[in-house]
From TrEMBL, chain A:
Upper classification of the organism: Eukaryota, Fungi, Dikarya, Ascomycota, Pezizomycotina
Presence of keyword Nucleus: yes
PANTHER family: SMALL NUCLEAR RIBONUCLEOPROTEIN SM
InterPro entries, per the entry: Lsm4, LSm4/Sm_D1/D3, LSM_dom_sf, Sm, Sm_dom_euk/arc
GO (cellular component) term, any one: spliceosomal complex
Keyword vocabulary terms for this entry: mRNA processing, mRNA splicing, Nucleus, Ribonucleoprotein, RNA-binding, Spliceosome
Annotated protein name in UniProt: LSM complex subunit LSM4
GO biological process: mRNA splicing, via spliceosome; nuclear-transcribed mRNA catabolic process
Automatic annotation (TrEMBL), chain B:
Protein's cellular compartments: Nucleus
Subunit structure: LSm subunits form a heteromer with a doughnut shape.
UniProt record similarity statement: Belongs to the snRNP Sm proteins family.
Record-given protein name: LSM2-LSM8 complex subunit LSM8
GO BP term, example: mRNA splicing, via spliceosome
InterPro entries listed in its UniProt record: Lsm8, LSM_dom_sf, PTHR15588, Sm, Sm_dom_euk/arc
Gene Ontology MF term list: mRNA binding
Pfam family, one: LSM
Chief place of localization: nucleus
GO cellular component, one term: precatalytic spliceosome
Domain Sm: 1-77
Length: 123, 149
C-alpha cells in the first residue's frame, strides 16, 4: 500500500488537511490525483492562528501546498479490503497474457517470441 | 535508499515545521510521503513554560514528503521508559530560517559586505550575531570596518 493508495481509498470520507501556510481545511474528500491535488466539499477553513473560520461549499487544493492530511482510522482497513478485492496487475503477474506488451526486452529480433512470429508469417 | 525497512515499526518524524510525531510507519513512497498509524504529536515545552509537555494523539496521518525533515527508528523500550510530560526542551525550529524583520538580508546587502561575511565564514566565524573588526587595504589606505552580522 502506498501513501497515495490510502488517499484514494479515503475518497468520500471526511479529512483534515493542513496547508504549508498553517491553514487547515476540514471537509469530505471528493477526489484526488497522483500529485495529491484534492477537491473537498463542505469545507471549514481555519486560519493559521485558529481564530478565523470560513465555510466553503467546495475547495480545490493544489497538492504542493499540503503539509499533512489527517484521515479517519478506519480508512486503513478500507485500503486493505480494496487491495484484496482488486489485486494490481503486477500482483497477478500476467501482463503479457492480457495483451499488453509490457515493454520487456524479449520482443524484437533474436527473441524467443520474435523467432516464432517469423515462422508463423511464412507458413 | 528508502524507508522501506522501517515499515511496520515505530518511527519518530520531525517535520519541516519543527513538529515531532511518533507512530507506526505503515507506508512510504519515493517522495517520502509517509503514512503513520496511531500518530502521537509530542509537544515539548521549554523550561520557562510552567505548563507540562504533552503527547497529543492524532490517529492516522499522511505526511507529505516535502514536509518531512527526519524519520528515524524508535527504540520502543527506551522511549517507553520516558515520561514525556515531564521532559522540557527548547522548541525545534523549522527548516526554513525566516528573515528577521528589518534584519540584514544576505541577498540584498552590498557585494563588498557579503564578500567580507563569506571570508569570515571561511575562517570559521559564525556568520550570525557576530561582531568583527576587519581591516582592509583599500587603495593603499587601511580602512577599518566593524561588522555586525
Amino acid at each position: 500500500m502506498l501513501p497515495l493508495g490510502l488517499l484514494n481509498a479515503a475518497q468520500g470520507h471526511p479529512m483534515l488537511v493542513e496547508l504549508k501556510n498553517g491553514e487547515t481545511l476540514n471537509g469530505h474528500l471528493i477526489s484526488c490525483d497522483t500529485w495529491m491535488n484534492l477537491t473537498l466539499k463542505e469545507v471549514v477553513q481555519t486560519s493559521p492562528d485558529g481564530d478565523k473560520f470560513f465555510r466553503l461549499p467546495e475547495v480545490y487544493v493544489r497538492g504542493n501546498n499540503i503539509k499533512y492530511l489527517r484521515v479517519p482510522d478506519e480508512i486503513i482497513d478500507l485500503v486493505k479490503d480494496q487491495q484484496q478485492n482488486q489485486p494490481s496487475s503486477r500482483a497477478r503477474g500476467g501482463g503479457a497474457l492480457r495483451g499488453d506488451h509490457g515493454g520487456r526486452g524479449d520482443r524484437g529480433r533474436g527473441g524467443v517470441r520474435g523467432a516464432r512470429g517469423r515462422g508463423r508469417g511464412r507458413g | 535508499m528508502s524507508l522501506q525497512p522501517y515499515v511496520d515499526q515505530k518511527v519518530l518524524v520531525v517535520t519541516a515545521d519543527g513538529r515531532t510525531l511518533t507512530g507506526t510507519l505503515l507506508s512510504c513512497d519515493q517522495l517520502t510521503n509517509l503514512v503513520l498509524q496511531n500518530t502521537i504529536e509530542r509537544v515539548i515545552r521549554p523550561h520557562e513554560d510552567p505548563e507540562d509537555s504533552e503527547e497529543v494523539p492524532h490517529g492516522l496521518y499522511l505526511i507529505r514528503g516535502e514536509n518531512v525533515a527526519i524519520c528515524g527508528l524508535l527504540d520502543e523500550q527506551m522511549d517507553g521508559e520516558i515520561d514525556w510530560a515531564k521532559v522540557k526542551g527548547s522548541v525545534i525550529g523549522g527548516v526554513k530560517h525566516a528573515q528577521k524583520p528589518g534584519g540584514a538580508n544576505m541577498f540584498q546587502e552590498p557585494v563588498r559586505r557579503k564578500k567580507l561575511r563569506d571570508d569570515l565564514w571561511v575562517k570559521g566565524h559564525s556568520p550570525r550575531n557576530t561582531r568583527a573588526a576587519v581591516s582592509l587595504n583599500k587603495n593603499g589606505q587601511t580602512v577599518q570596518y566593524v561588522l555586525q552580522f
